[in-house]
Amino acid sequence: MDAKAGENPPVVDVGESQSARKQGGWITFPFLAGTMLGLGLSLSGATNNMIVYLIKEYNVKNVDAAQIYNIVNGCTTLAPVAGAIISDAFFGCFPVVAFSTFVNFLALIVFTLTASIRSLRPAAPCTPDACEPPSALHFAILYSAVALLSVGTGGTRFNTMAMGADQFDEIKDQEAFFNWYLVALYVSSVLGYTVIVYVQDSVSWGLGFGLCAAGGAASVALLMAGRRFYRRREAKGSPFTGLARVVVASVRKRKAETREGGAVEYYHGISSQGGPPRDLTPGFRCLNRGAMISEGDIEADGSVSKQWNLCTVEQVEDLKTLLRVAPLWTSSVFLSISIGAQGSLTVLQALTMDRTVGHGFTVPAGSINVSSQITVAVFLPLLDRILIPAFRSLTGRALTPLQKLGLGHVLNTTAMAASALVEQRRRARVATGNQDWIVPMSVLWLLLPVAVTGLGEAMHFPGLLSFFYQEFPESLRSTATGVVALLLAIGYYTSTAVISLVRRLSNWLPDNINASRLDKVYWMLATVGAVNFGYFVLCSALYKYNNRDSSSTSTTTETPATETNDSS
Prior knowledge:
CATH class of the domain at 1-235: Mainly Alpha
Number of helices: 15
GO cellular component, one term: membrane
Transmembrane segments: 26-46, 93-117, 137-156, 177-199, 205-226, 442-468, 480-502, 522-543
Keywords: Membrane, Transmembrane, Transmembrane helix
Order of helices and strands: HHHHHHHHHEHEEEHHEHHHE
CATH superfamily of the domain at 1-235: MFS general substrate transporter like domains
InterPro entries: MFS_trans_sf, POT_fam, PTR2_symporter_CS
GO molecular function, one term: transmembrane transporter activity
Strand order of the largest sheet: 1-6
């Protein structure tokens, strides 16, 4: 099958009889979605109830357990960034994903052993008279499981997504895959929040972690079962080295003289984009000098004499792409901050409200936020199969990634306002300042604003992933999806700093939630969200798509080109 403009030709393993035409496409989706379902279930089940596990089974103090949980959550959120970089720079997606799914399975085996073998944790739970702390060996085994889980998550979370997108040539198919990928991710998380946590609390910790291990084993089996169908991309070395060369070469040549008449020769080198050599685009013209050929830059055989004195036009344009995307990326940071703040504050509200539903069933306070994930899991298929096709038939156009991002911002700001209104209603029913007093108001009121947040996530994050994947250079695409993990991590950690700052500068958040002004906190988040939306609109109005109507190819060229210098 010949490579065409706008298509990425598949890479076929040597020795495989499968033709290039039959690799990639939707036949790979069941294997990749099943893999992600098993991975998501195992991660969610192993971490969501960890605070309770540490307190009840390891005799860890409450605050210490929360701190350990935050460290674990931070590791499993940031690790995908490193995994994406390693995939891009050295090994490619499939080897990293295959290795990491196996490591993930090993982590869950260790967790299961800690829950099943009594000698791997303190001999007895705490009593009012005595409390045996965990030993160094107990912590070492537990932390080894956490480390393995972080490695497993880091190598799979976003590399699986990038690997799935590589199976498709059309942007619309890639966008559909992103939506269904997130459905699998959120469904698995919901199952972990509910089924696995229930088994751990009500049956046994060993069985609960054992189910997680079964999910991990299933992910390994499904991934390997589909290996002959996958289209694979080879790693092309660290893309960040090339970007650094652009900066260094541009600085070194900042005073370089152009040739008489204004003609200047730019170096194209070996292009991974194929077709005709890429042209230098307007903007960030100071970077163009990094690709300008000066005396002594090129050897007689055509090679570059000093790597850090000359870069390619493609590398210059790759860095320009990152710089153009950066403002839109920063606009998404606040959205993650508000999601993190709402998630923690909603649990505090739930603890003060009537959590009984039906005949004696009590809703766990920590399960309130699962409604956001349920909303995403339900709404994404509707969006992909009904709403977006209906919009296309009515308008003749598809929703662009930036339009999805904008809707996500609007829904997120609306959710903060809804949380403020629910909190005002809750405060109106507070009859005493006693922090142990339960407000006669159903906890189900909290589901509405959390569900609206879920709608915002369903619009924003698939749009963000699609936007990054289509706009980032091919050499950075796995890293582009990993950038979302970095975005979420920054948001969650910053939300902790924001709450601490609010407590220091005001009396809105005392320890007694019944005497707090959470409504003002939510109104503050809504106000800042509205301002942030204005910033996003400005950034999106100034942004021009690079690859909306075409995607890159992968044939190569190796010729310098001569252009007219249009920069000083």
